[in-house]
């Protein structure tokens, strides 16, 4: 018997080339807030709803342990999915456009922790893919098809 039950993702750690640039992206574009800074480690903890996204500078003590930085042929992770609400595709795309960002295609229905729901994919400044996922079609929904 397993003596615990996984509840949710607690945090994800991404290695980044430019900590200040990534901080701006995650705070200004995605609305995360700085929870704690640990410059002696090259580490920034960001609050992402109930979870955390930690950014580790490639040139900091922790980042240097991981070798070369992410790129098309050497990614940190496949993608990280952030649950967003409401999911208004047009409003999200307009917001991203103000930062010179585009989604990697139109919204599509994908399966996630809450079931099937709409999502868009974008990339952060280091090329990490982020999925912005709306609520399940089966539950209370604030998004509309179309």
Automatic annotation (TrEMBL):
Domain VOC: residue ranges: 8-135
InterPro entries the UniProt entry points to: Glyas_Bleomycin-R_OHBP_Dase (IPR029068), Glyas_Fos-R_dOase_dom (IPR004360), GlyoxalaseI/FosfomycinResist (IPR050383), VOC_core (IPR037523)
Location of the region described as Disordered in the Swiss-Prot/TrEMBL record: 124-146
Pfam entry (one): Glyoxalase
This protein's name: VOC family protein
UniProt organism field: Arenimonas fontis
């Amino acid at each position: 018997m397993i003596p615990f039950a996984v509840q949710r993702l607690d945090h994800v750690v991404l290695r980044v080339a430019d900590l200040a640039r990534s901080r701006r992206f995650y705070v200004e574009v995605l609305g995360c807030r700085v929870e704690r800074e640990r410059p002696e480690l090259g580490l920034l903890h960001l609050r992402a709803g109930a979870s955390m996204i930690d950014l580790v500078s490639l040139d900091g003590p922790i980042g240097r342990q991981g070798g070369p930085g992410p790129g098309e042929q050497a990614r940190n992770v496949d993608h990280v999915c952030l649950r967003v609400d409401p999911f208004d595709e047009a409003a999200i795309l307009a917001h991203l456009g103000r930062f010179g960002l585009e989604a990697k295609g139109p919204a599509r229905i994908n399966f996630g922790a809450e079931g099937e729901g709409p999502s868009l994919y974008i990339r952060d400044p280091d090329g990490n893919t982020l999925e912005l996922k709306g609520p399940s079609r089966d539950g209370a929904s604030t998004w509309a098809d179309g």
